[in-house]
Specification:
The structure is a single chain. The chain is about 55% helix and about 10% strand. It is globular, with a radius of gyration of 21 Å. Helix 2 runs antiparallel to helix 3, helix 3 packs antiparallel against helix 4 and helix 4 packs across helix 6. The chain has about 325 residues and is of the alpha/beta class. The N and C termini lie far apart (about 50 Å). Helix 7 links the parallel strand 3 and strand 4. It has a 7-stranded mixed beta sheet, with helices on both faces. It has one domain.
């Protein structure tokens, strides 16, 4: 059960700062331990020191964000959205730069023309609804980073309430138009929050939705197909069987967002590269020496989005099949590259 907000502020936030100081002071010891542990592993798995470095940088950035949030609160700017979006942008840019150096991360994006999505000064743009596949723990961070950095957008997202155990995420996200939902809250509350966030978007905003509802695994794929069959949605179940890399999309969230903000363009996001790194154990065992993520974005103008519910479901499956085909092509190219 998630502790009350006052407990999170008075206990978890200071704990992160104390842990950061401890890690920084004892960093040489941790690096020696990591190096000694690496000697007992085969060369491809000698990644202990990299994880130590990344953990220390992450904690340091978390502490900096908490300090900045405290200053904004004291200065009376706790509700000024632009400052908090700038703070998130700074944090994600530092995390991304660190990942580039430590894990030799490379991200290649094939995207619409920048002017179609960017929200620069003086440019009239429409809000966007971003529908992305869900694969691995870092996809949300990379996606939000791209929306902030490349397109100057203000992302909105519905997240699991448990993520509020992260103090900096807890403080910043709760000061912006986002939503945390309890794990057992049910699908109805998620849809209501999506509709609420979508209905209040302006031109610079971007609502991010992961229609699959979770990371892909073969077991989850089979369960999702069985669930469709139990509901009598045999056509959707058959189309889901044809997708090897994705869970079938759950249409209610996307449709609710489109209905609440019909003027928004829709952007579909495909990505691959670290799909198998779902748990901490996966990351520890299989993270490659060089991490390479490829992504592709498709933009659909609001006028081209179908109007009827059944047509929208078919349209959503059409794009999900397109993403699945793109992932297959990328993996084949990687094998032969």
């Amino acid at each position: 059960m998630l502790p009350p907000r006052i407990v999170r502020r008075l206990v978890l936030a200071p704990l992160v700062i104390v842990l950061t100081v401890f890690m920084v002071v004892t960093l040489p010891l941790w690096l020696v331990v990591a190096a000694a542990a690496a000697l007992r592993l085969p060369p491809p798995q000698r990644r202990s020191a990299r994880f130590v470095w990344f953990a220390v940088v992450w904690l340091t950035l978390e502490s900096a964000v908490l300090a900045a949030c405290a200053w904004l609160w004291v200065a009376g700017g706790a509700r000024r959205q632009e400052r908090h979006y700038a703070l998130i942008k700074w944090f994600l840019e530092k995390v991304f730069t660190t990942a580039v150096h430590i894990f030799q991360l490379r991200v290649d994006i094939e995207e619409p023309e920048l002017a179609e999505l960017a929200a620069g000064e003086g440019r009239q743009v429409k809000p966007i609804i971003v529908l992305s596949r869900h694969a691995g723990p870092g996809d949300s961070f990379l996606l939000i980073h791209q929306l902030l950095e490349r397109y100057d957008r203000r992302p909105r997202i519905v997240m699991k309430a448990a993520l509020q155990y992260d103090p900096s995420l807890d403080v910043v996200i709760n000061r912006l138009p986002n939503a945390f939902v309890p794990r057992k809250s049910g699908h109805t509350l998620v849809i209501e929050e999506i509709r609420r966030l979508s209905a209040t978007m302006s031109g610079q905003d971007a609502l991010v939705i992961f229609p699959e509802g979770g990371n892909f695994t073969p077991r989850r794929r089979q369960k999702a197909i069985a669930r469709l069959e139990e509901k009598g949605l045999l056509a959707e179940a058959e189309r889901a069987r044809g997708m090897d890399h994705l869970l079938p999309p759950r249409p209610n969230g996307a449709i609710a967002a489109i209905e609440a903000c019909p003027s928004a363009d829709v952007v579909f996001v495909a990505h691959t590269g670290l799909d198998d790194l779902v748990t901490i154990r996966d990351i520890w065992r299989y993270l490659p020496v060089r991490a390479h993520i490829t992504a592709k974005w498709w933009r659909v103008p609001a006028a081209a989005v179908p109007r009827e519910r059944e047509d929208r479901i078919d349209w959503l499956y059409d794009h999900w099949e397109r993403i699945d085909e793109w992932i297959t092509a990328q993996r084949m190219a990687a094998r032969h590259g």
